[in-house]
Every structure is written in structure tokens, then in C-alpha cells.
Design goal:
This protein is mainly β and 461 residues long. The chain has three domains: 4-153, Immunoglobulin-like, CATH 2.60.40.420; 164-294, Immunoglobulin-like; 321-460, Sandwich (Immunoglobulin-like). The chain is built from six helices and 32 strands. The chain has helices spanning 4-19, 21-24, 135-138, 185-189, 347-354, 447-451, and strands at 30-42, 51-56, 65-68, 72-79, 87-90, 114-120, 125-131, 144-150, 161-169, 197-200, 207-210, 216-222, 229-232, 239-244, 247-254, 257-259, 264-269, 277-280, 287-294, 321-329, 337-340, 343-346, 358-360, 370-374, 379-386, 392-396, 401-405, 413-417, 419-422, 427-433, 438-444, 455-460. Strand 18 (277-280) and strand 19 (287-294) form a beta hairpin. It binds copper (II) ion (CU). Copper (II) ion binds at residues 392, 444, 446, 449, 454.
Length: 461
């Protein structure tokens, strides 16, 4: 945990370094945004009463932030929520001081305060940003938005580059965010807080405008607190996956895409005239969640739909350092006691007194729980065993990792991603080169699980 004083010194040093354009930002374009977080009345569809959300710039999802690979992104963030928060840039291989994790890499941004996030963008892809303090509540109330990095750009995405930002809301009979369920241990010990309405791009059952023919890129982002979403277009053509968690991959086909919380997948659609509706297909009955409507005949060209593939080869693992992570806890689990704040406690006591339910290696995780300390440049294998009765969407901050997985089809293959959805009982190896210095969070992105113990810090120094 870093103290406020230490941080202030660090931020002044950072400011001096960054305000010196000659040494730091030479030849780089600084892309500037302002985000203001505050409570806002919002309409999910035309015929519904307003719902009070916590939004960035009154927008749901928050405003699209775009930059080009090689730019410096600067976001002046002002908090007018009435309680402290921070912003995390999910999937960005960030400077540690800009990663937005309270108590680890920055102090909380209090109400009325402004914090300037400023960092270089080194990779194209589909990312997102979201609140990282009490994320189980702040993200559920709407504090998130898409972040898209391209190779070249005229301040907005092309008309063939389409966002599909999905969220799962728990809305009560008064059409408001269900507040009573925040902190509900039943949710926290099971799958997390599930919603009852699915929004796409901030609307219930929207009509997504697309050009009437020609190729398209669809960028899916699952911003749900806890719900795993499966999408299909339900026509006989299979889906062409071209990117996973922001990283371009060699095109491959699949029938549906499954997205754990925080995961992203980009699809290439060969001809937009084939697109009719989008379905969520987790349940037996497919649920239509959006329609595509064609607007006009477009004769623009189709440039830049696919980012060049940067090869991220799985390195030889002979010299790798192994870190074992045994995930335990939750309902129907095998955790009877765990160490919390230096003291061994029974699970019942942990749950009732501290709302703690999940553990790594027998320790209730927290922002100040260090899973491991590794040397800069080490090749690391996190041997992760999900020894619980629930799936978990495991996210590593600060870097992507390779994981040999069966998530698309029956054959195991390596994917390079920042969030991996683990089945109950699954053992997986997360492989990464620890070449980004700092304290990096590793946690479940089912946000209620993180809040109740499923998280810790891997320090790279
Ligand atoms: Cu989890």
C-alpha cells in the first residue's frame, strides 16, 4: 500500500517529467479528454422513466475514448459523485502510476478533486475504462466506457467500425438501480450480482445503424459486474474472430462468442447486408438484444477494418518462474478458514463480520495482499487452480498473458489476453514476461468476488 505522502512526491515527479515535452513527448500527439463523474438521470429506452445512474459526462456507456497507437492519452478526470473513486484503463499495458488502482498505484480521487491520467498508448485494440473503487457498486451504477486504439483515425471510429458494449443491470420495479442488493452476501458467495436487463450501448433493445453492404468490424465488450454473456447472430454463417482482449489474431471461425466480465472480442462481418439481429444465447431460448438497421448505401471504402497482427510468440518456458495460485472459497466450496489481516479466522466469521468469502493460497485477498514478488524481466507462469464451484473471470493488470485454452472449440490453443474465464475446477497456466515494473493487481473481474477476497498484488521490481 502506498501512502498519500509518498504518492504526492511521486506525482510531482511524474508531472515534471511529463510536462517536459522535449524529453518525453517528442513527436507524440497528446490526445486529451475530460471526464466528469456524477449522478445523472438517464433513459435506457424511449418509453421508460428515468433511471438515476452514476455516469461519466452524462453518457451511458461513458464517452468513447479513441487514440492512435503511439499517441499519449491524457484524461482529466473530475469526481463529483459524493464519494471517492478512480479510473482503471482495462487491458492497457500502462505505467503503474496511471493504472488507477486505489491503495496500490494511486490515492482515491475524492469528491471535488481532479486527477490527470496521462500515459503512452503502445498497442491497438478494443479496451475499456471503469471505476476501480468499490467497483462492484461503481461499475454497476454506470461508471465505465469504451477505449479504442487504432492505427489511424479521424477522431472517431469509421462507420464500419461498430461498438457493442453490453451490460447487465439489476433494475427494480421503480425503474431504478436496485440498491438493496449491493453487498448482498448471497450474491457475493455465489455467481456475483446478476441483473435483470441487458443493455447494448446503453439502450435496451437498440437499433444499431450499419451501412447497407460491405464489411464491418464489431467490437464486443462485456462490462457486466458478474454475468457471463454469449452472443450469436443466429444465421448459418459462423463468426469471424479477429481480435481477443484487444490483441489482433489470425482470423478464425466460431459459432458463438462467450465473454466473461471484462473480456472483449472483435468480429469481422464480411457483408453487413447479412446482419439482422444480435442474440444473447446463454439460455435455451435465444434472447434478441439488438437489431441492426441499414441506413443508406455507402460507397466509402473499407480501409483499416483489420489491425495488422503483431506476433506475440509464446516464449520457451524452460527458465520460467512458477507461482502457484490456489483459488478457494464461495458457496459450496472447501474453504473452512483463511488468514485475514494477519489472523486465521473461520469462514463463517469472515463472512458475517467482514463480508470475506474467497481466498488465494489460504489468504483473504485485498489491495495490500501480495501474492508474489518477481524480478523485472522474469518469465512467469501463474499456475492457477480454480478450486471453487464457480467460474471466475481472472484479470491481470499491466500486461497480457498467454493461456492455453479450449475456449474456442475442442482443440487447446494459446491465446494472448488480459482476462481469462476459468471454469469451476479448471487449472490454467497464465504465462507472461514481467517486463512492466510496478505493483499489479491480479483479481477476479466478477466484481463481488474481488470485493470479498479474490484478489492480490504481483509486484514486479
Ligand atoms: Cu470470481
Amino acid at each position: 500500500m502506498i501512502g498519500r505522502r509518498k504518492f504526492l512526491n511521486l506525482s510531482i515527479a511524474t508531472f515534471i517529467m511529463m510536462s517536459s515535452k522535449e524529453t518525453y513527448a517528442e513527436g507524440k500527439i497528446i490526445k486529451r479528454y475530460k471526464l466528469v463523474a456524477k449522478p445523472t438521470d438517464y433513459s435506457f429506452s424511449n418509453n421508460q422513466n428515468l433511471t438515476n445512474l452514476w455516469l461519466l459526462n452524462n453518457s451511458c456507456p461513458g464517452p468513447l475514448i479513441t487514440a492512435e497507437k503511439g499517441d499519449i492519452l491524457e484524461v482529466e478526470f473530475t469526481n463529483l459523485l459524493g464519494e471517492p473513486t478512480t479510473l482503471h484503463w482495462h487491458g492497457i499495458r500502462n505505467l503503474n502510476s496511471m493504472d488507477g488502482v486505489p491503495y496500490v498505484s494511486q490515492p482515491l480521487v475524492e469528491t471535488g478533486e481532479t486527477f490527470v491520467y496521462r500515459f503512452p498508448i503502445n498497442e491497438t485494440g478494443t479496451y475499456w475504462y471503469h471505476a476501480h473503487n468499490k467497483a462492484w457498486e461503481h461499475v454497476a451504477r454506470g461508471l465505465y466506457g469504451p477505449l479504442i486504439i487504432t492505427n489511424n483515425l479521424n477522431n472517431s471510429l469509421g462507420r464500419r467500425d461498430i461498438l457493442v458494449v453490453a451490460d447487465d443491470w439489476l433494475i427494480n420495479e421503480n425503474n431504478q438501480v436496485d440498491e438493496e442488493s449491493f453487498g448482498n452476501l448471497m450474491h457475493w458467495s455465489h455467481a456475483g450480482r446478476y441483473g435483470n436487463r441487458l443493455s447494448i450501448n446503453g439502450q435496451f433493445s437498440p437499433k444499431i445503424e450499419i451501412p447497407s453492404y460491405g464489411p464491418l468490424r464489431l467490437r464486443f465488450i462485456n462490462t457486466s459486474n458478474a454475468r457471463i454473456l454469449s452472443f450469436s447472430l443466429l444465421n448459418k454463417n459462423s463468426l469471424n474472430v479477429i481480435s481477443i482482449d484487444g490483441i489482433s489474431c489470425k482470423l478464425f471461425k466460431t459459432q458463438k462468442i462467450v465473454l466473461g466480465p471484462a473480456q472483449r472480442v472483435d468480429l469481422l462481418i464480411e457483408d453487413s447486408s447479412q446482419l439482422k439481429s444480435l442474440f444473447e444465447v446463454s439460455n435455451k431460448e435465444p434472447l434478441k438484444v439488438a437489431d441492426f438497421i441499414t441506413t443508406d448505401l455507402v460507397i466509402e471504402d473499407h480501409l483499416n477494418l483489420i489491425d495488422p497482427i503483431v506476433h506475440h510468440e509464446v516464449p520457451p518456458l524452460t527458465s520460467a518462474k512458477i507461482i502457484e495460485i490456489h483459488m478457494q472459497g464461495g458457496a459450496m466450496g472447501n474453504l473452512s478458514s483463511a488468514i485475514f489481516e494477519g489472523e486465521k479466522k473461520e469462514l463463517r466469521e469472515l463472512a458475517l463480520d467482514n463480508s470475506k468469502l474467497w481466498a488465494f493460497n489460504g489468504h483473504i485477498g485485498n489491495y495490500d495482499f501480495q501474492i508474489a514478488k518477481v524480478n523485472l524481466g522474469d518469465l512467469i507462469i501463474l499456475k492457477v487452480w480454480n478450486d471453487t464451484n464457480w467460474p471466475h473471470s481472472m484479470h491481470l493488470h499491466g500486461q497480457h498473458f498467454w493461456v492455453n485454452s479450449q475456449e474456442f472449440g475442442s482443440e487447446k490453443r494459446y491465446f494472448f489476453r488480459d482476462t481469462y474465464l476459468m471454469d469451476r475446477g479448471e487449472k490454467a497456466e497464465f504465462i507472461f514476461k514481467a517486463d512492466n515494473p510496478g505493483d499489479w493487481l491480479f483479481h477476479c473481474h466478477m466484481l463481488e468476488h474481488h470485493a470479498s477476497g479474490m484478489g492480490g498484488v504481483i509486484s514486479v521490481a
